[in-house]
From TrEMBL:
EC number: 5.2.1.8
PROSITE patterns: CSA_PPIASE_1, CSA_PPIASE_2
Record's protein name: Peptidyl-prolyl cis-trans isomerase
Family as reported in the entry's similarity comment: Belongs to the cyclophilin-type PPIase family.
UniProt keyword annotations, A-Z: Isomerase, Rotamase
GO MF entries: peptidyl-prolyl cis-trans isomerase activity
Domain PPIase cyclophilin-type: 6-74
Keyword Isomerase carried by entry: yes
Organism: Hipposideros armiger
InterPro entries linked: Cyclophilin-like_dom_sf, Cyclophilin-type_PPIase_CS, Cyclophilin-type_PPIase_dom, Cyclophilin_A-like
GO cellular component assignments: catalytic step 2 spliceosome
Length: 97
C-alpha cells in the first residue's frame, strides 16, 4: 500500500507496510484521511539525502495519535532489508505516531 504526498514541487510516494506495522499504519493512514498533515512545512532539508515534515502543531513535539495517547513502537527486521524498501527506510518518530 502507498500514500502519495502532494507538494508544491511534485509528488512523493510513501510505501506503508500495514502487515508489518499495523498500528503505526492505522494511525498514519487515519491521520492522513483526516487531513491532519495538510499544510505541514518541510522543516529540514538535506540536499541529496532527506527531508523532514509532519508536525502540524509547529512545536516539534507532534500531536496525539488517533487513540489520544502514545502507543508501543512496532519494529520489523523485514523492513531493514526488504527489497521493496530500495535501501531507504525511515522511522516515523513523533509523539503522535
Amino acid at each position: 500500500m502507498s500514500v502519495t504526498l502532494h507538494t508544491d514541487v511534485g509528488d512523493i510516494k510513501i510505501e506503508v507496510f500495514c502487515e508489518r506495522t499495523p498500528r503505526t499504519c492505522e494511525n498514519f493512514l487515519a491521520l492522513c484521511a483526516s487531513n491532519y498533515y495538510n499544510g505541514c512545512i518541510f522543516h529540514r532539508n538535506i540536499k541529496g539525502f532527506m527531508v523532514q515534515t509532519g508536525d502540524p502543531t509547529g512545536t516539534g513535539r507532534g500531536g496525539n495519535s488517533i487513540w489520544g495517547r502514545k502507543f508501543e513502537d512496532e519494529y520489523s527486521e523485514y523492513l531493514k532489508v526488504c527489497p521493496q524498501c530500495f535501501k531507504i527506510c525511515f522511522l516515523m518518530s513523533c509523539l503522535h505516531l
